[in-house]
């Protein structure tokens, strides 16, 4: 098998949950560090311009968004499973947590460290990523609401743990644990655990759960340059192991499509549909730097449309 390559940056919370998943699986992987703010020309060549991080690469297969990255990791090493109680509950909890906590978590974060965020980062997130101003001054009026929301949601985690035990869905860790951990990790890593635990009223059960997840670690990591990652893609051919033609909307393989996030960073990736099922869609993308790569996306959270339909919608 080709090397497992993760394109990420240190303080990306979405990257942290994938780093932990790789550690949980006991996998060795290559670390390609990218900038928190584009441009990222070599990563764009691999993904067709996908805007968000992290991205997982295995040879000439490129996985965008943490849900489909979890799915890829599960195929690579099925045990221990990231879905010990089935996919449904873990995926539902993950989607809920990501979308419910992202803005309030940012609001709490910038109250602590907003003055240290570079202007280029703030401008990028406002103009190209989130669509709103995350500067300390802009977020400050809503800070009480953000704290209220995060406190309430953290109490829900406590309620789950009181019922299930060590982890959110049962006795074994699941993808939901890694997702619900990552935004609290972001706050504690940047503002200090003691300050965040007190501000959000994190319970002993939640704190102990976070300690258990942190202890997993990141597996066996070695550095790789972006240039070497691109060369690895060009030297490989896409893996035919995931081959499906069951698009629930009836789009035929070979159709020119765009795939676009439905929430933020809505930059479409254009390619040729080469595989699809109810959970995953794969498009072929060509670039001089990489040759043909297959770029994988999850269904939930993304819109896959024929190019003509996407153009009509945009108009």
TrEMBL record:
Pfam families named in the record: GST_C_3, GST_N_3
InterPro entries: Glutathione-S-Trfase_C_sf (IPR036282), Glutathione_S-Trfase_N (IPR004045), GST_C (IPR004046), Thioredoxin-like_sf (IPR036249)
Alphabetical keyword list: Transferase
GO terms, molecular function: transferase activity
Domain of life per record: Bacteria
Positions of the GST N-terminal domain: 2-81
Full protein name: Glutathione S-transferase
Organism name: Jannaschia seohaensis
Lineage: Bacteria, Pseudomonadati, Pseudomonadota, Alphaproteobacteria, Rhodobacterales
């Amino acid at each position: 098998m080709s090397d497992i390559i993760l394109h990420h940056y240190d303080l990306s919370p979405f990257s942290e949950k994938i780093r932990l998943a790789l550690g949980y699986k006991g996998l060795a992987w290559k670390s390609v560090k990218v900038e928190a703010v584009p441009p990222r020309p070599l990563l764009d060549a691999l993904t067709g311009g996908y805007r968000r991080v992290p991205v997982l690469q295995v040879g000439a297969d490129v996985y965008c968004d943490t849900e489909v990255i979890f799915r890829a990791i599960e195929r690579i090493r099925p045990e221990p499973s990231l879905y010990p109680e089935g996919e449904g509950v873990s995926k539902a909890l993950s989607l809920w947590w990501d979308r419910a906590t992202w803005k309030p978590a940012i609001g709490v974060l910038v109250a602590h460290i907003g003055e240290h965020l570079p202007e280029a980062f703030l401008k990028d997130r406002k103009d190209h990523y989130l669509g709103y101003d995350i500067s300390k001054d802009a977020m400050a009026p809503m800070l009480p609401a953000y704290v209220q929301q995060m406190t309430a949601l953290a109490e829900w985690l406590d309620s789950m743990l009181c019922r299930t035990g060590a982890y959110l869905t049962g006795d074994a860790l699941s993808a939901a644990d890694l997702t619900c951990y990552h935004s609290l990790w972001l706050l504690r890593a940047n503002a200090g655990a003691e300050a965040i635990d007190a501000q959000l009223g994190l319970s002993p059960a939640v704190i102990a759960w976070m300690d258990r997840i942190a202890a997993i670690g990141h597996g066996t990591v070695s550095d790789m340059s972006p240039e070497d990652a691109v060369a690895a893609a060009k030297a490989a051919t896409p893996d035919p192991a995931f081959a499906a033609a069951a698009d629930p909307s009836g789009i035929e393989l070979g159709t020119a499509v765009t795939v676009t996030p439905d929430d933020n960073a809505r930059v479409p990736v254009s390619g040729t549909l080469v595989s699809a099922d109810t959970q995953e869609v794969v498009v072929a993308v060509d670039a001089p730097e990489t040759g043909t790569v297959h770029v994988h996306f999850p269904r939930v959270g993304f819109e896959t449309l024929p190019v003509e339909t996407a153009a009509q919608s945009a108009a």
